[in-house]
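Self-study notes.
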Amino acid sequence: MDPVGEAATRWTEQLVAWEIPDEILGQAPETPWTCLPDDFAVEGEDPVSTASTPFEREVLSPDGSVLDVGCGGGRASLALVPPAARLIGVDLSADMLRQLERSAARRSVTATTLEGRWPEVAARVPRADLVVCHHVAYNVPDIAPFLDALTAHAELAVVVELTSVHPQSAWSEAWRWFWDLDRPSGPTADDLVAVVRERGWRPEVWRSRRPPDDGPFADPARAVRSTLRRLCLPADRADHVAAFLRDHPLAWPEEVVTLRWPGVDAHGS
């Protein structure tokens, strides 16, 4: 694979700009970068789906296998059961992986999980027919090797889903209000498309409207809890945050973008 190019370098530079100043981060009661497992659980046995599910099902044969990188509670891969008969989940959070295992068991599908950071753990992960990676890319400054490892593990195709703009932009107004801090505006999904093309792949791209009440932040209490964590604020500021959110609802990205490109078998590798 060619060395890192301009598009990947630009992606990295834009993500680095999201770093929180040390004087704010140093007094945070908890890390602002983690997600709470309960916010991403897939409850019950009812079918789940995402904006990308139809485009994933197009390439997945009956009894196929799915590798879900940054799987969280498994919403992306569980949406493919059936036809998927085998799931492989990779995530940094052991709690998230346990959620995937429980949800897979309820659906009578085999799930193998591995705790670790991608692509550092990629050598320990088997290939799958389909590799999916939903809402993870904005957490990956070193994007080129990350995408390379996704593609190397996909027999048929890779599908990456992300919001059209950085999800943390939902809190940009709050950062100005509470900390007088301006946040970056990039990168965007278009920047990721440029990186994928720079790596030599020709992605298909679809854009979908995100339901306005989708996700854990539709619950006001969860929105307050998440805003406190994201903004490095202590719990005693909860009332101030709740009042702010009543007048300034989180401007969550309204569009979800799906990228799909061929895996190694489709390339004849």
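Second protein, same conventions, sequence then structure:
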Amino acid sequence: MKKLLVSMATVPLLLGGLSVTASAEDGFNIFSGVKLSGEIRPRYEMADKEGGTDAASAMTARTRLAAEAGLFEVDGLSAKVGITSVNNFGYTDYAPADSKYDTILDAQQAMLSEGYVSYKVAKTSLLAGRSFINLDDQRFIGTVGWRQMERAYDSVTVVDKSIKGLTLLGSWIYGYQGVNSNPTTDTASALVNVNYKMNDALAISAFSYLIADVHDTYGARVSGKVAMDSIKLNYAASYAMQSKASLDYSSKTNADIDASYYDLALGANISGLLVGAEYEVLGKANGSSTKGFTTPLATLHKFQGFADEFLAQTAGSNNNGLMDASVKLGYASKKIGKAFVIYHSFTAESGSATDLGSEIDALYVSKIPGVNGLKVLVKAAYYTAGETGSGHVSDNTKYWAQLDYKFSTK
């Protein structure tokens, strides 16, 4: 039934691709206002982690094509279908394609990345099928858009914006696919997110994410931007707590959890000069609990450094806790693009070895003049290992070079 719902959502547009002007016998249009969009994103990635495997390199490309159209001339009724493929052109010098190399999480694969029907009445919309869901800063729920095969969620989602500045979202997630999740991972999870944006200086979010057989997370976030002449400040503060999963999908014995999370971030743009600092804590397991704070459905690449050294820990095995203190320095302008460097210092809250190492990240991204929708990106990560017994005892270096071209019809 779950996969059938996604398939039903895609049928109208798959047929519409054969004849955009298809009409029913009584003369009304089945499809109207068809919009096409797509992306081509070639990337080179190198990964070299000290240890028993060889340095990996991958040349991959993400190709995405999507079509969206109104259905049956019914106001507010529409559907969308999108496909995404990742090709490595036969270059397999990376795991999991070849286990003798280091890991790069961009396997050659293809999937239905979007396939849904939506209905909008006034400022309330209902969506059923497969779509991309990114909430707040993606610390808890995200699509991992950095990876070539972005995660998509199978859901029934309601969004209401009837009150100015207030967005209410409720979503029942019954599966997800993408990154290395192929085929679909079934689940039975519930998401609630309430966001109120008073103005640019203050936005408040409250959320409840009940991930089946994993944990329940409750929390809040405040963020905003404040402009003062040539200085533009931005800030964010988050707090959340996790407890034992209340939703039982697979009849497993859910782990006892008692853990908390907080994050404080402050940044400034001073006539193009970028500076910032952040302190983030994913708490350890407390009392008799068996798991610390984790975020398995986050866009994890955004957090704890570009080297992805802590993916396994923050996704599911963070028993001793993780503290990440970072500082940022860079420059941005419309002419030259944006460049910055971030330094991270990682420590554990508990355990016999609390030094988890450090990392220096660098990034440059810019639009390509004269080609609408085309960007270039160069990126690097240098992780330095922590102390013996920390679980993070190997240096890790990564480089990326990428082009990204997006297009759409009006």
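Instructor comment on the second fold: The mean pLDDT is 92.
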